[in-house]
Q: What sequence folds into this?
């Protein structure tokens, strides 16, 4: 056995510590970039038009998507808790079965965005219905009453 004291462990240099810190930060930035890119991939297209949905359905049947278009006048029917109507983009139309809550501004001719999937019956099954509107409030003229739900249903 040697009675000599053990050699001191080599001290890490500042350069080595700085290099290790930069490598760790690089890995963290790359991981955050990858997570952000994966999260945004599904959000790049806000919604598909009926024409796009029909062609995309052939490639991705049953995939959850957003559908946007206009409600065809005369197509709105209430069947129990379901709302059935047709959405068009001016070229193609697609039947919709909506099971979610119906916004107060929903009516025929209105722009809508739906979330759901195209079913095997070639109808779009939606659980989320959003109404597109310009956001401007126009109060009724003096002496007029605001339209009721019955008035909106009769107009659509």
A:
């Amino acid at each position: 056995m040697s009675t000599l004291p053990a050699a001191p462990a080599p001290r890490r240099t500042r350069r080595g510590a700085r290099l290790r810190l930069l490598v760790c930060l690089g890995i963290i930035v790359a991981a955050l970039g990858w997570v952000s890119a994966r999260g945004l991939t599904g959000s790049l297209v806000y919604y598909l038009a009926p024409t796009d949905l029909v062609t995309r359905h052939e490639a991705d049947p049953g995939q959850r998507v957003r559908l946007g278009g206009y409600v065809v006048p005369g197509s709105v029917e209430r069947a129990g808790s379901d709302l059935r109507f047709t959405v068009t983009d001016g070229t193609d139309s697609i039947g919709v079965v909506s099971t979610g809550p119906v916004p107060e501004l929903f009516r025929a001719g209105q722009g809508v965005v739906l979330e759901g999937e195209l079913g095997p019956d070639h109808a779009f099954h939606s659980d989320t219905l959003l109404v597109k509107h310009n956001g401007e409030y126009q109060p009724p003229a003096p002496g007029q009453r605001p339209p009721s739900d019955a008035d909106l249903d009769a107009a659509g």
Residues 14-41 form the longest helix (28 residues). Strands lie at 65-71, 77-79, 82-88, 93-98, 111-118, 124-132.
